[in-house]
Each structure stands twice: as structure tokens, then as C-alpha cells.
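Worked problem 6 (solution included).
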Amino acid sequence: MAENMLDARASGALQRQSLLNKPFFYVAVPMIVLGIVIILPTIQLIYNSLHHWSLLSGVKRFVGLRMYVSVLTDTLFTEALLRTFIYTVVVVAIQLALGLAIAVALNRDFPGSRMLRTAFLTPMLMVPIMVGLLWSLMYQPSIGVVNYIIGLFGIEPVGWLSSSALALPSIGIAEIWQWTPFVAIVFLSALQGLPPNVVAAARLDGAGRVRRLLTIELPMIWNVVAIIFLLRFIDVFKTFGLVYVMTRGGPGRATMLAGFYPWEVGFSQLLMGKASAAAFILMNIISIIALILLRLVFRENSR
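Solution. The predicted structure is:
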């Protein structure tokens, strides 16, 4: 009897050990989590997008692809999409340029350099809601520090967030302030990882700082630049928090970005089916852009 129990335990232990040795066991748990966190909500999103669902009436009626047609023919959506592309390209370009300049400036040892690099990361540790509140206070016409500073030069107070021309650039400045440190730190790590002998040889050949950067260092970290551009493009393209806190898409529709459009339709117009369709369209647009950029990066690597 005791021997049978020992044999059963030993057999069970061997089976568990055999299971642990199979690769699919370690893949199964992440796949289950992925399915719960991503796949199931996406299925629910697609299901909602196929229905005319108004929170005002509470009625959900199947309409097929009609909500997608409604979104794509909505001038508010097409204008927001164009505005988002322009905003994203400009903001990401400035972040890359400033981040590279800061990385080059920090790529040397000087007193307090490590402390400065650590403190430099503070903005990116803040959530977008906090950043939006901070910059909203700074942009206040009467008590904001921005108007106080320009007032020192005799300039009248400006309504940064109440002006149709200045509201979106003002949000862009907040976005740049928050995430340029991330870009700079990644570039700094890439620059410090370059082979010292290559940089030293270029210095011996008489190449100046700008020439070394443009002809040697930048081409060697080009893959890093491309990946950072991809990450920042996706993140900026789906900007929501700053717009929600600072302007709610106004004044008028001056700051209505694509990432804010589903919220506007879903919680202002109470059309959840149309909001779901808009969100699914944006998800696919971002995925296509990401695939194109990744293909360009890998094609460059294969050369």
C-alpha cells in the first residue's frame, strides 16, 4: 500500500517536471493574460461598433458597418485626423531634435552631471493628468508664470488656452516638456555605447563636434533614432490626457485630436457605437503606421 502511494507520488512529480520542461507551459500564462487584457476588449469594441448604441435612449440596435461610414464621413473626425498627423510630426520632430542636442551636451563628465541626468527624468515620471494641470496653471492669464515672464518684457497677458491659434501649440509644448527627457536619455545611452576607438579616430582626423555627430555618431545610432521615432509617434498620435485636462478639445474644435474624438462622441454626444467604431479605426491606423515604420527600420538593418 505504502509502495503504491510512493509510486503515485513519484509519477505525479515526474509528470509535473515534464510539464515544466515544455516551452508551451511558459507561453500559456502570458497568452491567457494577453487574451483577457487585449483580445476580449477588442472583440467587445468591434461588437459595440456594429451597433447604434445611444446612452441617452439605452437602445442598442445592430446596424452593420453604418457606424464606420458615419465616422469616416464626419468632418469633425477627418479634420481631427489631419490635425493629429500635423501635430504628431511637429511634436516628435522637436522632441528628437531637442533630445539629441541635450544628449550631446550631457555626454561628458562634469561636476554634478549624474545628479543632473537623474533630475532630468522628473517630467516623464508624471502622469499626463498632472502635467496638464501643471501647465494649465502656468498658462493662466492672470496668475500663470508664463504670462508673468513675458510681462517682464512689456508683453500683454496672452490667453494661451483660449486662443484658437495658440491652444494646440501650448499643448504641444507641454508634451515636449514631458517626454523630451526620455528621448534624451535614450540617445545618451546610445552615444555612450559607441566604440570609443571610432570616436577617437575621428577626433584625431580633425573632425569637429558637429561633423562627428552628423557623419559618424548619428549614422551609428540610426536604428535607435528610428525606434524612438516610432514609439513617440504612436504615443503622441493617441494624445488624450493633456487635451482632456487643458482644453477639452476647445476652444471651438481647435484642439480636437483623433485620440480625443471617441471620448467626445461617446461621452458628449452619448453615441457609444460610433465612439467604438472611431476607436477601432484609430487602432488600425496606428497599427498600420507602426508596421510601416518597423518595416523601414528592418529594411535598413538588412542592408
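Discussion: Residues 165 and 254 are 8 Å apart (CA to CA).
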